[in-house]
Inverse folding.
């Protein structure tokens, strides 16, 4: 391993991991969650089920022969101990917090407590107390000592003849060194309760006799209370002057976002205004945070209030005595800070006060975990007389180098260079939260040669020492410690390997039978599994790259079989034994070496698990890290499956017969196989969005909803009976309800992100999402409706049997179930085969009219004419959504135009139904002023709306729409999106979505506008039954 490829931080962490593993192995410790293959959040029932499953494999009574029974006893002993520890809440809580050391403690105190939460709280306190005892002296206290020394008298020629320094030499220094000031601070923090902590802080500043001010000090007491996981407040009061009381509140609603307010008031001088400081910050990107700080100071007035404050500049100019209240000027600061994963940090801010302004910028680069270099620039401008422009006060540059002596101690060298402040070198030492600083003034004026000596030479020396002495020394020490641990681990490795081989032999017969059954059923079969330091240089879960990498590293199998210390072990049988119901789930958050049949072949090396498996006749491959959870068939592999379109004719094939159990199982079989594939493809489509778009909270919410729907439906085993079908149907129905608000949520998200994604890409993504969503809902709601219809038929058949009283009557009655009337025979799942458009328009018109009256206080009338008795085969929820959206626009435009033209009354809206060859036409005519030519180009664009105040639309939908829409007998709460005036009003998604819904089954939607008069909207809907039965969904 060459020095360039050697990562010290990774090797340090690896050494720590090796030490923990060696200590655990030496003590005979196990990860009992991994032994049972359950997660740390597993319920008691999960633990019992895992124990029963492993008992069937390893109980000694299930094996024959003295040797195999002895193997089984060793394996079963570990499994039984894992069950005993995890099944007992008290012992489990102790094990979670303290490991095996806490097991006996858990048994001793467990039955004295009342609940699992009590146990967890107790052992959390025990663990916390142990950590506090280890670092109590350092963690609970914080201190700083700064000793400022003026050495310019012996270093700088500009100060050699200074009378002031000469006079001070005998009193405070020798040889030209002058002790200027000593600053000390110390604070101690203690927890008073779970949410309250107290801090006592003392500060002292001592200056020599030549300084402008003498000595002073302060002692403060602060009480801090946590109000929630993101909010805290504090109250600070002094013990010694100045008596400034402070109240501070901080709220952090999300990562990188913060709001802070602080109020300071002099308790002995209430005639002085309080100093108020408000700060706020939020992320601009994943690496950058912007912040602003506004401080009022304590020199302001509110009318006549505080006009005579002792901190006012007028009082000071009038020759009054100096006040004990520190004067604070008002200020504004705006800045940016940023950090990257490469170890770079940077920032800049601009601050302006009443008589001063400065610009500050800084940059820090972490060379490695032990060494860092930083630099800064400060430009100061003065305006003492409040005149313009500002005069240059100072330009200063600082360079800081810091290196770690050990994990807790840091030694640094800082050089400050300023035109007015000269050259100062600061040597500092930090250990935990304690620091000692020694600033040494080399010259009061900027000397370039001295600045180079003070910065460049120490930096070069520090880098040389770091790279050529300390780093090679640390590398040799780490490698030597690793070799020692490996030598000591060899015996443990042989023991683990022997036990794993015994477990595999015990599982072999059972796995062979399960494999044979899985092959016959075309189920999940583990073809090959390797665990260890795999030689595949690939990314996890990338099957294409994986296949290429395995070809490239084909010699790895030879290496595995010929090396003295194999880099990986074969766990094919052990992994297949964990397959349950064509699914393999391995819990994460722990090493897989404790699974039955596994062992650690490469102590100290990072390990992975490689799997090649066959599912549904297709071969898949995957690789996961040692602590990563695994579930196969993997979700990503569902993408390899192609969507299987279903025709309208197939959805209608049950229209002329009573539904049977075979019909329902056939429907659920297709639904269960198809929906997860379509949902998975939607999830992947979100991954392809730009990062800033995908992280938008509204879009991320929709992504999570699709992911959860996929996760829940994909988890069902293949369905073969009505009980399992009913469970799946109810889960499908719940997920359908969860996805109801997808469109308004995604609309709001893309409205906020329209600057970050081209319009064409946004339109394509939304179109694909909506078309896919229509297909998902049609397939899902069709099966849900068929399932309910089947159970209703079964219920009526049973009632008919009970009432008939004879076999012949029962058969006759059973034949009429589902066929006995127009109301019963018109539904085929979610499709209505005799839908009356005129009746639907009446219902939607009444609802839109009521909501228009609620919002505007008035509403136009409407009437339906034409072929009012014409019927169509269609999905009512789709029809309702389209027509409600069109009527909403017509009603709103009519009222707005009447108001703008002072029209005395609203002309009615005309709805005309026409009959065509296999379709029904609907014309909606209004006199709402029409649409301008400029707007006509945009009416079918997403996120465009003529509504100026979308907030009012949201409020109207929330307050007025719910109860009215509940009165509609709509299967999906007014056409899948809460319809008129609901969440999407004003978001610009109504007409584009209506056009998509109309065109999905071969229809169309067109608008003809006469500007200044009104609009005619032409809707053409094809009958599902007959004309579009070949349409693929």
């Amino acid at each position: 391993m060459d020095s360039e490829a050697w990562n010290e931080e990774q090797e340090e962490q690896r050494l720590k991991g090796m030490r923990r593993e060696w200590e655990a192995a030496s003590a005979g410790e196990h990860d009992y969650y991994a032994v049972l293959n359950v997660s740390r959040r597993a319920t008691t029932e999960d633990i019992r089920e895992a124990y029963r499953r492993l008992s069937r494999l390893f109980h000694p009574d299930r094996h024959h022969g003295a040797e195999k029974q002895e193997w089984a006893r060793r394996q079963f002993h570990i499994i039984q101990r894992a069950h005993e520890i995890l099944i007992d809440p008290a012992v489990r809580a102790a094990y979670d917090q303290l490991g095996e050391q806490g097991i006996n403690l858990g048994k001793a105190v467990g039955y004295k407590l009342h609940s699992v939460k009590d146990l967890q709280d107790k052992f959390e306190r025990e663990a916390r107390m142990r950590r506090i005892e280890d670092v109590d002296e350092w963690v609970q206290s914080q201190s700083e000592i700064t000793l400022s020394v003026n050495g310019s008298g012996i270093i700088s020629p500009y100060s050699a003849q200074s009378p002031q320094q000469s006079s001070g030499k005998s009193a405070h220094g020798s040889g030209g060194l002058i002790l200027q000031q000593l600053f000390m601070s110390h604070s101690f923090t203690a927890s008073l309760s779970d949410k309250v902590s107290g801090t006592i802080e003392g500060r002292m500043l001592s200056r020599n006799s030549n300084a402008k001010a003498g000595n002073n000090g302060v002692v403060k007491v602060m009480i801090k209370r946590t109000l929630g996981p993101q909010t805290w407040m504090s109250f600070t009061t002094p013990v010694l002057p100045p008596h400034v009381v402070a109240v501070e509140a901080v709220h952090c609603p999300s990562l990188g976002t913060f709001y802070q307010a602080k109020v300071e008031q002099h308790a002995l001088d209430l005639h002085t205004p309080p100093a108020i400081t408000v700060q706020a910050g939020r992320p601009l990107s994943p690496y950058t945070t912007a912040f602003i700080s506004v401080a009022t100071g304590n020199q302001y007035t509110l009318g006549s209030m505080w006009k005579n404050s002792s901190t006012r500049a007028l009082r000071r100019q009038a020759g009054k005595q100096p006040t004990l209240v520190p004067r604070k000027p008002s200020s504004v600061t705006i800045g940016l800070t940023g950090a990257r994963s490469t170890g770079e940090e940077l920032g800049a801010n601009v601050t302006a006060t009443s008589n001063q302004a400065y610009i500050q910028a800084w940059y820090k680069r972490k060379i490695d975990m032990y060494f860092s270099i930083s630099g800064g620039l400060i430009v100061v401008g003065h305006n003492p007389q409040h005149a313009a422009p500002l005069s240059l006060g100072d330009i200063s540059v600082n360079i800081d180098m810091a290196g770690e002596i050990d994990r807790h101690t840091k030694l640094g060298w800082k050089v400050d260079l300023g035109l007015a402040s000269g050259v100062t070198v600061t040597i500092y030492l930090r250990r935990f939260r304690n620091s000692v600083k020694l600033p040494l003034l080399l010259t009061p004026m900027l000397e370039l040669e001295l600045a180079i000596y003070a910065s460049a030479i120490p930096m070069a020396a520090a880098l040389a020492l770091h790279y050529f002495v300390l780093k090679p020394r640390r590398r040799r020490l780490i490698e030597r410690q690793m070799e020692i641990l490996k030598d000591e681990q060899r015996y443990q490795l042989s023991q683990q390997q022997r036990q794993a081989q015994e477990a595999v032999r015990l599982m072999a017969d059972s796995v062979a039978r399960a494999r044979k059954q899985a092959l016959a059923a075309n189920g999940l079969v583990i073809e090959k599994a390797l665990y260890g330091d795999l030689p595949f240089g690939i990314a996890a879960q990338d099957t294409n790259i994986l296949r290429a990498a395995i070809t490239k590293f084909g010699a790895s199998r030879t290496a595995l079989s010929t090396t003295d210390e194999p880099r990986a072990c074969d766990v094919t049988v052990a992994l297949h034994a964990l397959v349950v119901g064509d699914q393999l789930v391995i819990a994460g958050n722990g090493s897989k070496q404790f699974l039955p049949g596994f062992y650690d072949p490469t102590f100290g090396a990072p390990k992975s698990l490689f799997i090649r498996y066959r599912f549904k006749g297709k071969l898949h491959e995957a690789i996961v890290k040692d602590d990563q959870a695994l579930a196969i068939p993997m979700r990503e592999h569902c993408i390899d499956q192609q969507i299987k379109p279903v025709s309208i004719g197939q959805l209608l094939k049950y229209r002329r017969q009573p539904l049977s159990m075979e019909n329902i199982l056939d429907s659920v079989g297709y639904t269960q196989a198809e929906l997860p594939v379509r949902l998975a493809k939607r999830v992947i489509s979100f991954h392809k969005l730009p990062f800033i778009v995908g992280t938008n909270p509204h879009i991320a919410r929709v992504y999570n909803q699709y992911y959860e729907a996929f996760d829940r439906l994909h988890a069902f085993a293949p369905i073969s009976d009505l009980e399992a079908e009913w469970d799946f149907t109810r889960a499908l129905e719940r997920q359908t309800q969860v996805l109801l608000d997808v469109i308004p949520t995604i609309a709001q998200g893309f409205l906020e992100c329209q600057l970050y994604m081209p319009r064409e890409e946004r339109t394509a993504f939304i179109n694909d999402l909506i078309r896919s969503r229509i297909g998902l809902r049609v397939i899902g709601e069709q099966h849900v409706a068929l399932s309910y219809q089947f159970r209703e038929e079964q219920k009526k058949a049973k009632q008919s049997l009970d009432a008939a009283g004879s076999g012949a009557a029962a058969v006759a009655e059973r034949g009429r179930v589902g066929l006995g009337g127009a109301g019963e025979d018109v539904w085929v799942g979610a499709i209505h085969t005799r839908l009356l458009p005129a009746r639907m328009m009446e219902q939607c018109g009444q609802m839109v009219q009521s909501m228009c009256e609620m919002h505007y206080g008035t509403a136009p009338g409407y009437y339906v004419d034409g072929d009012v008795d014409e019927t169509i085969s269609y999905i009512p929820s789709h029809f309702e959504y389209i027509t409600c959206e069109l009527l909403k626009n017509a009603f709103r435009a009519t009222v707005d135009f009447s108001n703008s033209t002072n029209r005395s009354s609203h002309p009615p809206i005309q709805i005309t139904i026409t009959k065509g060859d296999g379709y029904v036409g609907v014309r909606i005519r209004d006199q709402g002023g029409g649409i301008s030519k400029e707007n006509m180009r945009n009416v079918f664009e997403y996120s465009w709306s003529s509504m100026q105040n979308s907030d009012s639309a949201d409020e109207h939908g929330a307050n007025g729409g719910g109860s009215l829409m509940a009165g509609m007998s709509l299967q999906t709460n007014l056409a899948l999106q809460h319809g008129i005036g609901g969440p999407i009003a004003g978001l610009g998604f109504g007409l584009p979505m209506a056009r998509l819904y109309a065109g999905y089954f071969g229809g169309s939607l067109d608008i003809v506008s006469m500007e200044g008069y009104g609009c005619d909207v032409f809707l053409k809907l094809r009958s599902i039954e007959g004309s579009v039965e070949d349409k693929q969904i």
User: Anything to note?
Assistant: Residues 542 and 585 are 19 Å apart (CA to CA).
